[in-house]
Hints:
Layout: E1 7-11, H1 22-29, E2 34-38, H2 42-45, H3 52-70, E3 77-82, H4 87-93, H5 98-118, E4 123-127, H6 135-155, E5 159-162, H7 170-178, E6 186-191, E7 199-203, H8 206-215, E8 220-222, H9 240-250, H10 254-269, H11 273-276
Amino acid sequence: MDGTPVLDNHLHLDPVNGRGGAAAETFAEAGGTHLLVVNKPSWHLVGEVDDADGFREVFDLTVDVVVAASDRLPGRAWPVLGVHPALISQLTDRGYTAAEARDLMQAGLDVAAEYVADGPALALKSGRPHYEVDDDVWAASNDVMKHAFELGAETGCAVQLHTEGGEDFTRVAEWAEDRGLPRERVVKHYSGGRLQGPIPSVISDKDELETAAGDEGPFLMETDFLDDPDRPGAVLGPKTVPRRVRWLRERGYDDAIRTAHVETPARVYGIDTAATLDEP
């Protein structure tokens, strides 16, 4: 890649059931350099969570696997920690009210924010269900997401969002700004090539990437790799982002590559992927 940083902005490494840090080696062999590793949903790693300590166990596992991943990269990896929005459905199915589920998920985000403030984690993850839910669950989920924005503003970090599909999330970006978090620090995971409001983290489909590259705005690239041995073909594999970077270069999108892998990571997360590429 001629010294070009190559960042996958959103993937999962599963140290309990999957390949864990070894998947980072596959990414590096394909030309990847940097990873943002989002903790897997709590129920995949530790089962049912009913208090803040359960979330802490999830986050500790993720921080440890990120250390293992960094050892295999020419750059480094960072943890992104938070609470998967689908947890609210699991909790309400178990008998929690929407308000009780909201409170527990917000407590989980409070714990994640400690990891950001203390240094191991780079950003927070939140969002709302990408499927139809009752009005009270939808309202509670929006409250959880707004709490994440408040924590992002307090800690000075970005918030990655897992939400329903669509291209216009202007109102969500306004919610973040109302709470002191600039919209450029709100990232929509699994985005298409066009997006209003947050920064798009574009799933590395060729058509969507070409759209994003042609728009000349800030964007990131991701695979949403699941590291699930029971679903080996789910979403995209860890080699995909380096391969798509080469594909973009062949089509003359050198400026877009720099946008996605150097300029936007610096703008959103305050990280220097070029400088950290040279770190031992």
